[in-house]
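Chapter summary example.
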Amino acid sequence: MLTETVVAERCQLLGKYIVKTGATVRAAAATFGISKSTVHKDITEKLEKINPSLYRLVKEVLDKNKSERHIRGGEATKEKYKKLKKSKFNKS
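The structure predicted for these 92 residues follows.
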């Protein structure tokens, strides 16, 4: 089990990473090798108590990412179907 100090350090490290890179929760989870749930809980619940000023900065990034997620989803779908079309065309 992780100590409170280790968890606090992880929360701050995640927060600083998200603010610096503008990363999504999913991207941060992949980078740090932990689950999306852990990242989300660390930065939305624990970080607010540990470092309120960093939490506010992270919240701005998360809010921005949330407002743009439909765009990223649309782009991902577009790319998926481009690849499918290309692979079907190459099989003929």
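To summarize the output: The chain has a mean pLDDT of 88.
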